[in-house]
Amino acid sequence: GRVTGGKDEL
Amino acid sequence: MNIFRLTGDLSHLAAIIILLLKIWKSRSCAGISGKSQILFALVFTTRYLDLFTSFISLYNTCMKLIYIGCAYATVYLIYAKFRATYDGNHDSFRVEFLVVPVGGLSVLINHDFSPLEILWTFSIYLESVAILPQLFMISKTGEAETITTHYLFCLGLYRALYLFNWIWRFYFEGFFDMIAIVAGVVQTVLYCDFFYLYVTKVLKGKKLSLPA
User: Fold this and answer.
1) Residue B78 lies in a domain
2) What is the number of domains present in chain B?
3) What is the pLDDT of residues B98-119, one digit of tens each?
4) DSSP character for B48?
5) In sequence order, what are the residues at sequence separation of 6 or more whose Cβ sits closer than 8 angstroms to the Cβ of residue B184?
6) Tens of pLDDT along B138-160?
7) Residue B55 resides in a domain
8) B195 lies in a domain?
């Protein structure tokens, strides 16, 4: 999965 | 979003609120490490800079803002409003021994050598060890108020639940983030000794005090 950029996890 | 992720976030939120309310209601931050709270404020600040660059969801944005706001409110209560009750003599952990190596590591091991990504990585590494000044303070004084142990339990539980979330996401979404997972394991392991004391003492109605 994509891990860089905006993060959906807090 | 899965159940582990949601309960993890709520556990994290509960921890933050418990600490704020404890300080506010007792008008005192005795037994609380201001250094750990500064580190958490730094963690949220460096992690949530993506608020300016990308929109994920209303939930995501609101939670990030709440976490940042509460972190700074907690620091304000400790170092300004209730400063007289702050136990600085026992809060003697040297944070530069955490921040400097973590800063170096985040520059060396990251997903992408860009400012935002390095700062995010820094926040992940720093969060994993940010509780150490608090645990150090408890080991130094040999005791913790029960409400403080509830705070620590919720805070530790949050990252443990995230571990289950990552297992879930790996199986059902093929998603994994090795940096978050390794740091999350380290973070959870640091709480294990405390979890043991919490279950064997606090849940049986005893105060958490360490043997001399």
Assistant:
1) yes
2) 1
3) 999 999 999 999 999 999 999 9
4) G
5) B128, B159, B162, B163, B166
6) 999 999 999 999 999 999 999 99
7) yes
8) yes
